[in-house]
Amino acid sequence: MKSSTLKRLPLAITMALATGQSAMAQDEDESVLEEVIVTGVKYSMTAAVEIKRESMAIVDSIVSEDLGKFPDNNVVEAMQRIPGVQVTDRGAGEVSVVSIRGLADVTTTINGRNVFTAAGRSVALQDIPSTLINRVDVYKTRSAENISRGIAGQIDIHTNRPFDFDIDEGLHFLGQVRATYMEAADEFNPQGSFLLSDRFETGGGGEFGWLINIAYTQVDWRDQGAHAGASFPFDTVANGLGQIPPDQGWTPGTDRGLPTAPGSTLPGDPSREYLHWRDAMFNLDARGERERPAGNVALQWAPNETSQYTMEVFYNGYREDIFNSLWFQFLNSPIYDLADPVEIYSGTNIIRGRTMGDGFSFTSGDVTVQQTDSWLYALNGQWELSDTFTLESDVAFQDSEFETDFWGQRVARIAPEFYININSGDGVPYLDYDPSGMGSPANDPTNVDNYFLDWGFQNGARSSGDALTWTADADWDVDWGVVKTLTFGARWDDRSAEDQVTPGLEGGPVDGTTLADLPPEFTMYNTGDFFGGQEGVVQGWVVADPNWVLSNLPQLRQIYGFADPSYSPVFQVDETQIAAYMQADFYADVGAGFIDGRVGLRWLDVDTDIASPDDTGAFVTANNSNTTTLPSLMVRWGMTENLLARFSYTETFNLPAFNQLNPYIQYFPDVTNIGYGTASGGNPNLEPIESENTDISLEWYFAEGSVLYATWFKRDISNNIVPFRNVVNIDLPDDSPDRGPYDYILSQPDNAGASSLDGWEFGVTWFPELPGWFNGLGIQGSYTILDSEQQLPVLDDVGNITGFDISPIGGVSDTSYSAILAYDRDTWNMRLSYFWRDDFYNNNEAALFANPLQVWRGQEESLDFQLTWIMTDHLTVTFDATNLTEPEYHWNYGNQPELFNFHNYLYSRTFSMGLRFEY
């Protein structure tokens, strides 16, 4: 719970390991500290080393290179440099998901305070601008004093405060402006931040400081994707009956999919031979306009040497209009043309290419408008009540709202003839709309005369959440033998959340409107070097203009007979959390070194009331209550002056998401006399996911600000929340005919199965002393090895567990690494960073198809460059470039890229020029 704010960090060792002194004894001889004021890339990297060394927990940090100069454009991207941290979901001009050692279940705090977005339990980390951040700490192990929710770890973001500045500096002003060029979108985007702060004596009233920091970021982005659809069984050329539905002898959605050997027949019809073929292919050309305003205000007052008060307000906003141009070509025509046989992958029954005709094709101009506003208000007090007893208390209120609205506008045509090769190389499909070379206008996807007005789609959601939180923490220096300090505290949190949706509407025009009845501005021609102009990737198509759609939604709703959006609750939540903890720090001299550590226990009680409306609008209510006790033990052994070993055993947990607790169950009666009905809903009886964590590390601090280390870790996770089926017997009052008590197969989340993850992290940071121009070179590198396994229950039709499927945990790459070359001089510094991760299991496809169920992402990489030129004491020029190699990203079914390719993405390079001025 406690948070500490480090000022300009000393680069000397602030824990005197050489003399056997612990952190508790540090204040006894402050003369061992030597403060070396260093800025730039070397400061950022070596300061992070000192934070790691001094922390009782295993912590890796990213420190601002200088005030307002975080080392990356994006907070999430910056975390790639931390060993064991991986990022995913690159797109829309950024990456958005952080996983620690392969697990994305992360708790995020700002200055030690738990934060969230709207009705979720986690925060959209990418919404926090990097220009507001002083430091980010990633806790891979946690003491009893820390919030223990989040199995993967905790990300603690530190913002700037006025007492971070020396009192002699007076009024401090920092401004930063930057222009970023998004290559794919061919747009320049502005970014700016301004900080104004002062700290002074009040003339008898102690010290006072104030700080205002505001930031604004705009991004116009473009993402491109060329995709192959899912696989279905098709009749052979001889049968010529087309796509085979599941009720004719096969089960969709199996882990390995239908067999791919030549001559395979349907499991339920051994006489029926089939071929694998795709249902569709499609392109996505997505563009977005995103804005992120943000700011924080901090007031600090120290009336005397034994007390300090901090008041803070933090705001982050998000605005985005997303315009997606979707081209979609169905491929499900029957295979009946004996004169033009299909092309088969050698040694399989999988079709690679074929010529087709009369293929239904549509395009969709999709418009999504989203926004978020999140506020955090906090008041903190710290008191030194005696030489041995300190107290800290904090009260915070936060409020967050999120809105999203969507309209999809389709136009469609029939493609008379085309040739398709589902994998022309590296997983990218190939399509030729003019295989005969005749140049027929009827085949041209850019000819508006070939299209007709098709369906429209409308949906939206509203989400909100707030919380009032109070914490109190105390430190008592006791000196009871080896026990040096007792720390104890409490936390009370009152949380509410609400999710609302508008009914999703879809359908064709109802008033006879045709494409010809709409103005020419309704459609546009999508083109512009799509997917790098790659041969065989459809470059242009007619699509509804998203700007016109956005400006004329009332007219479109009238054409489709859709009502204006109205929002109704999905769930309403009131949750109270009460936590208390106690921990003891111990220390003992051992030969020329020492052993110290921390042992603690955290108790948490969570009481969640959740309500959800049924079909009549009446609310169904339920309660979910859980009490958890979490022990922790951390031990450090200072074997020599520079060699440190650690051991820790901790327990962490995660609460079910609010939507998983939804108590409303929807029942669907048996209308075909199969002997049971079906039902679906949430599960208010879910228990928290729990994890037992072991970490062992060895760290060698072989030079000032340098380290070489290795860590082994293991996570044993139980009570996984997975999709489940249970049999319930219920008497429905409106059942017709009245069956009395009757069995229903209820699909809902439940706790079942376990998972485990273990691995190694290796890391190095080194700035050697070198002669001449070589002095200033430094390296930072990390390598992570992960091995994961999860049990997924296999259920029969009535919910009995018949076994367990074993698969990797989603999002876990077996290996990943980062390599950073830095160069730091008096007037300029630079950094070249390369990040790579191996392929990984991402998710399961909808259980509708014949391909393997698992979706895997291929390997991912990023090469980034940063340059800073310190022109004067007050003026600095920066240059940043990201994603320099601009690789293609590939997803595949069953990790079989050759046979079952799926998604292919291109993400933009970015180039930024900035100017920083400081007074």
Describe the structure in your own words:
The protein is mostly beta strands and 919 residues long. The chain contains 4 helices and 45 strands. The strands form 6 sheets. It has a 22-stranded antiparallel beta barrel. A 5-stranded mixed sheet has the order 1-6-7-4-5. Strands 28-29-33-32 form a 4-stranded mixed sheet, with no helix packed on it. β14 and β15 form a beta hairpin. The two termini are 35 Å apart.
> What is the general shape?
globular
Distance between the termini: 35 Å
Structural class: mainly beta
Helix content: under 10%
**What average pLDDT do the residues reach?**
89
Q: What's the main sheet like? A: 22 strands, antiparallel, barrel
Write down the Rg: 30 Å
Helices, by number, come to 4
Number of strands: 45
Strand percentage lies at over 45%
Uncertain residue segments: 1-37
Task: Write a compact overview of the structure shown.
With 919 residues, the protein is mainly beta.
Structural features:
mainly beta, 22-stranded antiparallel β-barrel, five-stranded mixed β-sheet, 4 helices, 45 strands, disordered N terminus
Helices and strands in order, then pairings?
Elements: H1 40-54, E1 59-63, H2 75-78, E2 85-88, E3 97-100, E4 106-110, E5 113-114, E6 133-139, E7 153-159, E8 172-182, E9 187-201, E10 207-228, E11 231-235, E12 265-266, E13 269-278, E14 280-304, E15 307-330, E16 343-344, E17 351-384, E18 389-421, E19 430-432, E20 452-480, E21 483-507, E22 523-526, E23 541-544, H3 546-551, H4 553-560, E24 568-590, E25 593-613, E26 619-638, E27 643-654, E28 665-668, E29 677-681, E30 689-703, E31 706-718, E32 721-730, E33 742-751, E34 754-766, E35 777-795, E36 801-807, E37 815-824, E38 828-837, E39 840-844, E40 854-857, E41 860-870, E42 875-882, E43 888-893, E44 901-906, E45 910-918
Parallel strand pairs: 4-7, 29-33
Antiparallel strand pairs: 1-6, 2-3, 4-5, 6-7, 8-9, 8-45, 9-10, 10-14, 10-44, 11-13, 12-13, 14-15, 15-17, 16-17, 17-18, 18-19, 18-20, 20-21, 21-24, 22-23, 24-25, 25-26, 26-27, 27-30, 28-29, 30-31, 31-34, 32-33, 34-35, 35-36, 35-37, 37-38, 38-41, 39-40, 40-43, 41-42, 42-45, 43-44
